[in-house]
Amino acid sequence: MTHSPLPDPPGADLGRVRDWVREAVQLSRPIAVLTGAGMSAESGVPTFRDALTGLWAQFRPEELATEAAFRDRPQQVWDWYASRRAAVAGVEPNAGHRALATFQAREPGRLTLITQNVDGLHQAAGSPGVLALHGNLAEDRWLDSPRACCDASVAAGTLTDACPPACPACGNLRRPAVVWFGEFLPEQALRDAETAARTCALMLVVGTSGAVYPAAGLAFTAHQAGARVVVVNPEPSELDPVADVVLRGTAATLLPALLAP
Ligand code: APR
């Protein structure tokens, strides 16, 4: 009589991934972590789409988060970003952000942290060298290349309820320093992220639906280059098919367990 193998007990996958993390540390192999909006869910940050509630419910992100929309209706787009900034202003990193930062402090240079989030929570938790592929919500930059007259501190003083900050001399506008639909990602950050994906032994993909490229493609790159890929997400994601292990749980509960010494 043959026996079919018993199914893995609950927690077995968690144990396997913990072993992979420890192995990477012991053998001095690089780890990459790719995070998305779900990383900050337990901090109470509304996702991109959740942020379109109330007054904003009638819009789609693709209608507001573009350069064309900002040039056409600068005040409206600025106001939407102001509401997103306000939503993020009071939030704190959660146990998942802290677990990553603690691991990086304990194992300097071992882990490259790549994020699609613009909320700055990895940086607030103390993670060094975060590759922020989609920019940073807290920062502004010039819409057009700055001329000699363009002084950001002067522009900041021009902000009114009716107008985003602008250079009083030439009218150049300040815009949120995030990557809008149709824009290129920051070149150096993307290059560094691709290198990390190509060379890591283990990639943790945390809290992303895997629907937005080129960020989502990093998981495929890691998989094709022979890395172990682990998805951490309470729901199915488009990156589950490239994962060696899918952990169905949340960032704030699983990361501390995976990254503990
Ligand atoms: N822990 C882990 N994952 C979670 C949690 C949690 N607590 N809560 C939700 N998730 C998962 C969801 O199941 C979903 O798969 O996080 C994912 C969030 O998906 P999206 O909202 O699509 O976010 P993201 O993948 O980061 O989107 C990518 O799209 O909107 C643009 O530029 C924006 O950076 C963003 C990009």
- Strand-residue fraction? 5-15%
Tell me the radius of gyration.
Answer: 20 Å
Question: For the terminal residues, how far apart are their CA atoms?
Answer: 43 Å
Give the low-pLDDT segments. none
Total number of beta strands: 8
Largest sheet, order of strands side by side? Answer: 3-2-1-6-7-8
Strand count, sense and barrel status of the largest sheet are: 6 strands, parallel
Mean pLDDT: 92
The SSE order reads HEHHHHEHEEHEHEHEEH
The helix-and-strand class reads alpha/beta
Question: What proportion of the residues is helical, as a percent range?
Answer: 25-40%
Number of helices: 10
How would you describe the shape? elongated
Which compounds are bound in this model?
adenosine-5-diphosphoribose
Describe this structure in words.
By secondary structure, the protein is α/β, with parallel strands linked by helices. The protein has ten helices and eight strands. It has helices spanning 12-26, 61-64, 67-72, 74-89, 95-106, 121-125, 152-156, 187-199, 217-224, 251-259; strands at residues 31-35, 111-115, 131-132, 135-142, 174-178, 202-206, 228-232, 245-247. The protein has a six-stranded parallel beta sheet with strand order 3-2-1-6-7-8, with helices on both faces. A two-stranded antiparallel ribbon has the order 4-5. Strand 6, helix 9 and strand 7 form a beta-alpha-beta unit. The longest helix has 16 residues, at 74-89. The protein binds adenosine-5-diphosphoribose. Residues 36-38, 41-42, 47-48, 61, 116, 134, 206-209, 211-212, 232-235, 237, 250-251 line the site of adenosine-5-diphosphoribose (APR). Residues 36-38, 41-42, 47-48, 61, 116, 134, 206-209, 211-212, 232-235, 237, 250-251 line the site of adenosine-5-diphosphoribose.
